[in-house]
Amino acid sequence: MTDVTRPSRLEPIGVIAFVLGIVLVLVDFASIFIDAAFIRSGDYTSFSTVSFVITTISVVLALTAITIGIVACLRGGATRVYGAIGTTVGAMVLLQQFGTLVYALIVNV
C-alpha cells in the first residue's frame, strides 16, 4: 500500500507579515510627498497633525508586522521567510520613527 503524501499546508501568517511590510514601505513613501505638500503650503499646524497621524499609523503597523512576523518565524513552515522579511521591515520602520522622534526632541530643545 502506498502512502499518499498530503501537500504542505500554506500558512498565511507569514504572508500577512510580508504584506504589512510592503504597506509600511508604501506609507513611508507616500508620507514624503504628503509632508512636502504641507511644507510647501506653509500650513505648519496641519503639517504637525498629519505628521503625527502618519507616524502613529506607521508605528502601529510596524508593531503588528513585527509581532505577526515573529509568530510566523516561530511556527515555521513554508512562510517563515515571509515572516522574517515582515519582521525586518517592521523593525526598520520602528527604528526610523524612533529616530524621527529623537530628532524632533533635539530640534525643539
SS strand fraction: under 5%
Major sheet, described briefly? none
Quote the average pLDDT: 87
Question: What is the rounded distance between the termini?
Answer: 77 Å
Oligomerization status of the protein chains: single chain
Shape: elongated
Succession of helices and strands = HHH
Give Rg in angstroms. Answer: 19 Å
Count up the helices: 3
**Strand pairing plus helix content: what structural class?**
mainly alpha
Supply the number of structural domains. 1
| Number of E strands | 0
| Helix share, percent | over 70%
Keywords: Membrane, Transmembrane, Transmembrane helix
Describe this structure in words.
The chain has 109 residues and is mainly α. It is 82% helix and 0% strand. The chain starts with 12 loop residues before the first helix and ends with a helix. The model has no long low-confidence stretch (mean pLDDT 87). Keywords: Membrane, Transmembrane, Transmembrane helix. The chain crosses the membrane at residues 12-39, 51-74, 81-106.
